[in-house]
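To whoever picks this up:

The parser on our side crashed when reading a file containing two proteins. I've narrowed it down to the boundary between the first structure block and the second sequence. Both blocks are reproduced below exactly, byte for byte. First block:
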Amino acid sequence: MGNDEKRFNELIAGMRRSSKTKPLATPRPIQTQKTPCSSWNEVGIGFQLKSVKPFIPAESVDAPILCQKKEVELVAAVVGLLKANPIVLGPDGVAVHLDVPDRDPEKSEHEANECRTIEFRAKHLCGGHEYHFDIRRAQYAGCIVETLRSPAIIAEGNDRHFYLRRYKDRTLHVVISSLPVGGESSVVGVAYEKNSDLVTQYPNIPALTSGNARRWNPENAQVIYKNESI
């Protein structure tokens, strides 16, 4: 092999070596948003409710659910509860009015309806915004007073206050009120969470992101009060 041919072969070999792809660096794991807490002790004011809700501890208090089974009896029991407890003072100093008349839930909000009663408010609490009666929701309406008096968490968002308390049976009960004005607000609705499914004032449909439904979603609300004694 002549010198020229030898130099040519060395040149080609050098070009092949330099053209080899460098080994790829080990890919970094995708950074996801971390939950701001991992236990009840770490829950703090300003945290998003959706992050802290799983850590709300179950208390040793039995849920004071209503024992009635029939719709008419449950509605009457809720009426009695609202009238017997017209105003409940929460630990945040807000006086929540329960004896608030409501429209006929079987009629549209846009429909002319000046007749508002406590009975209609009770039906609302037993059946949701459009009155789809739910026996479990109606029974857990019995927890309204105790949840307001001793909530584990109070959160604020979407012009609503959310009072949450987890009872001995591990059910997370939620009372929804209007945004306080002058230290007073009015009950708007109730919800409960059983087996990780939040039962709201609206039918259980996937999309609750538009119109009035958005106002009821507590997920993005922020904690404004934490009960440090539990």
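<<boundary where parser fails>>
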Amino acid sequence: MMLRTAIASTLFTTALAGTALADQAYTSDPTELTIQLAEDRNDVAKGITSKYHLRIHGRVHAASGEISRADRVDVEWIAGGKKLTTASCDVDASGDSAQFNCEGTDQLDAFGDVTAVFKFTRDADDSVTTLSTHQLKVGRFWNWYMRNDKRLYYAQYQVMPLDLASSALISEEDWGAGDHRVQIYGWATTEGGATPEAETLRCSVDGKRLADFNASGGYGSILEATDWRDPQVNPRVAHVNRYSIWIGGLTWGSSADVDRSRFSGDLIVMGDHPGQWSCDWRAKGKVLRTFTFAVGADGFALPHAEQAAGLALPAGKKLIDVTVPESAPDPYLDPSMSKAGGLWGQAWRLPATGARLASVANRPGFESAPPAGAKAAGKPAKGKKRK
């Protein structure tokens, strides 16, 4: 079955001409970002309570110049308009990009709506750039334990970034020696570790079908939440996974820049097929995702209208539209989250973006209702740090 999305042909090109794309000195890469909540459990005679601390990984890029090890990334965690904590991150600089790793020191139990603000400080002049702002939801997941022959429960906390299911980026990468690789990065939900083995990417340009591409790649779990309420029932383990698709037989740029002698088999050059692309990512005849983007005459994907409106992404990466069809196996989908934002809860700047990307299916249950008698952790003492 071919799934087609009804998107106007002017979707990506309107107002891009003469409109400056988001130009920011430092940007973070959403495809390398993870926001996790690490458990801090307290088991005493009265019972078990659990809080969490922040554990965040990512990468920051400089538009020009180099990043220093003395530069800093900080993450502010805000709930109810109040800053609860700031996690300072170690920066591992390498030229114009750097990995950052953050391990928070404060014990927290805020759940529901939470805001995370990522800030980059350049040590040379103490200038501060807000890399991104994320409107997140923190859910509670429950585990059982026994006290005095009575089954009780304690809460575990985890971010619920279900907006990621309808987020994706295309990346045009130069791997050297003429290997102009085109990759698509996105996210999917699973229960347990099972993921579908995708086989092909079936694309059309302005309605004209191309030969199928090999869609090799892999999944990696970036977030796990376990809900185990009954010792007689297996725990429910929810995952959010990042996938990367290397599109075999496709290269970016123009034919004049491609040495075809280096390739065996058919090769499609993006510059030979400018226009509106719609691609179904397929596994055993079922569509997992449909990606839609525009390609210019130079053989590069055009930046998304969200980028013209202020979404800052690293050079070479562009946001693309992704539709989650009914045939997608994801057990957890939330159209309201996809409508509000993407890329870990970054609010859409254009209302039309969320209206297009909201998934058809509504599959709740990533966070289940608390069991009878369950209690959340109490408020932490002011200034309490992790031991």
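After patching the parser it read the second block fine. Confidence is low (pLDDT under 50) at residues 1-20. The CA atoms of residues 140 and 157 lie 5 Å apart.
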